[in-house]
Design goal:
The chain is mostly loops. Helix content is 10%, strand content 12%. The chain starts with 9 loop residues before the first strand and ends in a 10-residue tail after the last helix. Pfam families: DUF2256.
Length: 52
């Protein structure tokens, strides 16, 4: 039985530009999730270059 994952919310990672979908482990803080992986989070631009 295949799972339908097309209904999950998707965001685009600002570092690598790839789309990533909602994951169960992000359930409680999905609005704060910005990066698709730990690697992208570590490679984010320095704080002075970010628009937050």
């Amino acid at each position: 039985m295949a799972h339908q994952k097309s209904h999950l919310p998707v965001k685009v990672c600002p570092v690598c530009g790839r789309p990533f979908a909602w994951r169960k482990k992000w359930e409680r803080h999905w609005p704060e999730v910005r990066y698709c992986s730990e690697r992208c989070r570590r490679n984010r631009p320095p704080a002075k270059d970010r628009k937050e």
